Amino acid sequence: MAWFKRKEKGIHTSTEEKKDTPKGLWYKSPTGKIIDTKELEQNFYVSPEDGYHVRIGSNEYFQILFDDNKYTELDANLTSKDPLKFEDTKKYPDRLKAAQEKTNLKDAVRTGVGKSNGQDLVIACMDFAFIGGSMGSVVGEKIARAAAYALKNETPLMIISKSGGARMMEAALSLMQLAKTSVKLAQLADAGIPYISLCTDPTTGGTTASFAMLGDINIAEPGALIGFAGPRIVRDTTGKELPEGFQTSEFLLEHGFLDFITHRRDLKKQVNLYIDLIKNQPVRA
Predict the structure, then answer these.
(1) Cα distances (Å, whole numbers) of residue 33 to 28, 41, 50, 127
(2) Confidence at residue 244, expressed as pLDDT on a 0 to 100 scale
(3) Which pLDDT score, from 0 to 100, does residue 139 have?
């Protein structure tokens, strides 16, 4: 299958270029700003000069959102199988093993429960470093279980999306997760339990077509790419030039797809402010 033959097509993306979080003493943002990586970490992985939000993973988001970084991880050992015996340039089990060794993750989402500003919160956070944050059976199952836990314990749920879309190695099994997760979120809605969706860079494909856009409140980080198909696909399909900023979080906010955009340093405060309001309880500092 020709589209898998990256080297023959002259596509050479080094492993270092694919990493999410910066390595070394310095980090250079896409706008050319250079910052000490320790300072970047202390600033919530946001470049202070240009406000660029560096792509981070579940470890960093849990640290930002859970009080004192204390939480209990849910379903930590779920791993994907290979029911379709899929093989491209690698066998699917080999690709999973390589991703697990590289990222120290079991799959592309982690779920946990802990205190955020003193009240219980369930968080499901996707990791783009794991096969592009692709949504397979384990991602759908862990999100469904997190929603079930939130429903049983009457605890607000937050999902942090960061995904390239469905996982092609699982084909239709991956697409089934759209309906599976949507049903569980509908049950939360019927029970009056808050669900907050945070879209980060990138949030695309089946993730956008399901749980990422089903929040009681949909929020995003500045400058995040959010859409179904990518801009190039949309442009080539429609034959039209796209407006400036197309599929950025700012563009989606302007067109009514988001409730608001928040800087990462304000994320914990904003999430808990919404929970206080929806639960009709006094706003806490």
Answers:
(1) 5, 15, 7, 25
(2) 86
(3) 98
- 8 Å CB contact between 70 and 114: yes
The pLDDT value recorded for residue 240 is 87
The answer to whether residues 46 and 153 touch, using CB atoms and an 8 Å cutoff, is no
Q: Which of 72, 229, 222 is nearest to 153 (CA)?
A: 72
Flag residues of the chain having pLDDT under 70: 1-24, 283-285
